[in-house]
Design brief:
Diphtheria Toxin Repressor, domain 2, elongated, 2 domains, 2 strands, two-stranded antiparallel ribbon, mainly alpha
Length: 176
Amino acid sequence: MRPAIPSAEHDGVTEPGPSKTRLKQQMQDLQELGHALTSLPADRLASLPLPERLRDAIDEFKRTRSHEGRRRQLQFIGKLMRSVDAEPLRAAVAAAKLGPATQALQLHEAERWRLELARDDVAVQRWAEAHPDCDLGKLRALVQATRHDAQLPPEQRHGRAWRELFQFVKLTLAKH
């Protein structure tokens, strides 16, 4: 005979709890989250609100080399994950995965601004309106140096102004 699943009672009507399949899926999800936690760098892992026992289990997983040992340790991590709030951990794992993509987008935006600033003065005005706290004098000097460098023959170009303009734009965008 199968054991009864705990149920909730509302207004005298008994509703069944989650199905066995659903419970297994929740446990599998927690185990997968635990596996994702094992791939986080140590400094990011240290900043997470983890119980000491779970932190030790993750460290043990990283030290384990045999396939079967790692599988069993993952199951143990999944079991320990049942007692923690999983949402902040999911957010940390998602942030770790999105980190490089976000950085790439920031670099693409900086490159786009650099090209626009080097091409026309209207872009300098738009930049000044979008970033009123930046050093506008330095920006104009960098834009002028970049334009001057672009007019030189290729063998005389150094590209320093082009790089400095990019760094200025990137740092200003990072502040916002």
